[in-house]
Amino acid sequence: MFDLAATDGSVRRKRYQSPIPELPAPSRPIRGNALDSGKMVQLHHRLIGFYTQELDRQAENRRDQAIDEDFYDSIQWSEEDAQTLKDRGQVPLVFNVTATTIDWVIGTEKRSRTDYKILPRRQEDAKPAERKSELLKYLSDVNRTPFRISEAFEDTAKVGIGWMEDGYQGDDEGEPLFTRRENWRNMLWDSTAIEKDLSDARYIFRSKWLDIDVALAMFPKRRALLERSVDDADNFASIDAYGDEAMDTPEIENTGQGTNTSSFTNDRIDGYRRQRVRVIEAWFRIPEKTSKISGGTFAGEIFDPQSPGHVDAVQEGDGEIIEKVSMRMYVALFTTAGMLWLSPSPYRHNRFPFTPIWNKRRGRDGMPYGMVRNIRDIQSDINKRASKALHILSTNKVIMDEGAVDDVNGLLEEVARPDSLIIKKPNKSLEINVDRELGQWHLELMSRNISMLQQVGGVTDENLGRTTNAVSGRAILARQEQGSLATAGLFDNLRFAMQVRGEKELANVEQFMSEEKKFRITNKRGTPEFVTVNDGLPENDIVRTKADFVISEEDWRATVRQAQVESLMDLLGKLAPVNPQIAIVMLDLVIESMDIPNRDELVKRVRKVTGMTDPDQEEGGPEEQQKAQAEAMQQQMAIRAATADIATKEATAAKTIAQAKEIEAKTASINVGAQKSALEAAGAAIAIPSLADIADVVLHEAGYVSRTETEQNMRAAAEQAAAAQQAQQQQQSTPAPQEQPGAIGLG
């Protein structure tokens, strides 16, 4: 389709190839007279044929879906049955137990909405993936996506299928990307498809009624066709070959052709009648040769020359363009009279912009049905039993002979009174048969039907918080889990649908959000944070990288989560006395599994105290880097402290050695002086012998002990210690004397 081998280095475009003749390039939809050509008329007939075929195939199930939705809305009696009861004097009562069951499922979805993450495909793309995640959070807030999903899920719970639409609307409508719910009544799809994401479907149709002036403003060049498409008859919105009861009943009611005829009265007064036209939107696939990227970051995507990421990837060798036959998505708008618009899909992901949320599908033909379908008959019987019991308890039967009273009508009015007075003629029989016991059995059957409805619907009294015969906590949790398991398939389908539509929304972000944008996001505590994308920095570039959309919340069932938390708490209680350290390292994971406010902040603080890391955190994340820096700083401080301690000890030792050397030097000096003095004294003693005796007496009186005397004293002390030790050994080796028998002791 496209050629990058231009001589001037620019991107050169080849002529677009398509199996539909005379189609221009993808960015140029067919307009004007080209839509009236024979080829376009043939295509129009083909699309109308697919549309009417699906209308016929799905007609029966769509009729049942409308009835299912009416049952939820307490419209549970047909007009014929209700009129029959009124003619009998009975009241068509409605005890809407079904709505309580459906409301529990709807409320569970609202209470346990899912979250998601954007994961990079390459390690160096972590920052752009984080920016994409923040941008999707912003779009979710702006488009009110959680509320739109809840609206579609309500359709899923009631009628078996709900629809979400994710698309592009341009900057002039606010944010360029939108997310909204589409009514199931307007949708038809390829009923031969079996995949939940309709990836194997050939087409999806959406039918809408538009005012003629709105349609003319949208397609000014197709005025003649639009005017021919308007039904000028009185019943222009009546069911015809291009609509059914489910699709057109709301239109009939809104235009005043239902039970309320006030709008018709207004038409007759002012002569104005609202003109409407049915516009059908078709998304369909046709096989054709398409330019795709093979290998690299954008492998498998249709090559878009307007995408900086695609162009850079091909020029840098990160993938190559190949021509391959594949199913190319197209979009067409048409009325029953002809074509209004035809172009290739504007979305690079080449998928349907509509995402179905399934409940259950019929095995024989794949038609969807909701929770109401299985309990509808039980609900009808509940209403009939209640109406019958009330009629029995509030009416009387009269059995009498002919002519027992003069005024039969007066008799009937008098019998209906609780203080009735009846005067009959003599010899005439008149009996009032109350027959109240039959009403009791109707009420008994009604009570059993209510219990059966809960069993079939899967929502038990324990799920609803009502008092039952289950008294222990384990029994209550077991029954709550039973109800949660009965609806687990529905929530699993919702999880799958959110994964599919999230992938489409992410692809639209990577395609259309290519301009610089500043936006604000808030955390769970409402703290604002301002983010910028596509500002020229590589970490903020979201169009040159690819990422993956992943649902992060795994457990939709609140009761099961609570049971798991209680089991973990019991385990911690058993482990704490044995080894408190094990309980400490598990504490962050236990808190993370709880449904409590500010859970993430609590987990973060616990991990900060315990030193544990987030198991889902990427290597080299901010928290891990901070922890590594803190550990490195502590290690450096420990090394410095050890080095300082060694230096202190070395300095002390050096000081001690220096002091010892100083003392040794002083001692040597003293010894030398002493020797000198001794020699001088010896010389004096030799010269004057009489001074020696006087010096000896003076030294002895001063306490001086000579070296010779010291050695003698030490030898004497050693000899005395050796003698004492020898005497002690001899005493221990000598046996003690024994007393002779018969001797008398003196002690």
- The overall strand count is 18
Q: Helical residue percent?
A: 40-55%
**Order of strands across the main sheet:** 6-7-8-9-10
Mean pLDDT: 77
Q: Please give the radius of gyration in angstroms.
A: 49 Å
Name the overall outline: elongated
N-to-C span: 134 Å
3D architecture notes:
The chain is an alpha+beta fold and 747 residues long. It has helices spanning 38-57, 59-72, 79-88, 97-111, 126-143, 145-159, 212-218, 223-229, 245-254, 262-270, 308-315, 371-394, 408-415, 437-457, 473-486, 488-512, 558-578, 580-592, 599-610, 622-687, 690-701, 707-733; strands at 2-3, 12-13, 116-120, 161-168, 177-182, 187-189, 203-211, 276-294, 320-334, 339-344, 354-358, 360-361, 368-369, 397-400, 430-433, 517-522, 528-533, 547-551. α17 packs antiparallel against α18 (580-592). The termini are far apart.
Task: Outline the fold blueprint.
Elements: E1 2-3, E2 12-13, H1 38-57, H2 59-72, H3 79-88, H4 97-111, E3 116-120, H5 126-143, H6 145-159, E4 161-168, E5 177-182, E6 187-189, E7 203-211, H7 212-218, H8 223-229, H9 245-254, H10 262-270, E8 276-294, H11 308-315, E9 320-334, E10 339-344, E11 354-358, E12 360-361, E13 368-369, H12 371-394, E14 397-400, H13 408-415, E15 430-433, H14 437-457, H15 473-486, H16 488-512, E16 517-522, E17 528-533, E18 547-551, H17 558-578, H18 580-592, H19 599-610, H20 622-687, H21 690-701, H22 707-733
Antiparallel strand pairs: 1-2, 3-18, 4-5, 4-11, 6-7, 7-8, 8-9, 9-10, 12-13, 14-15, 16-17
Helix pairs in contact: 2-12, 4-6, 12-14, 17-18, 18-19
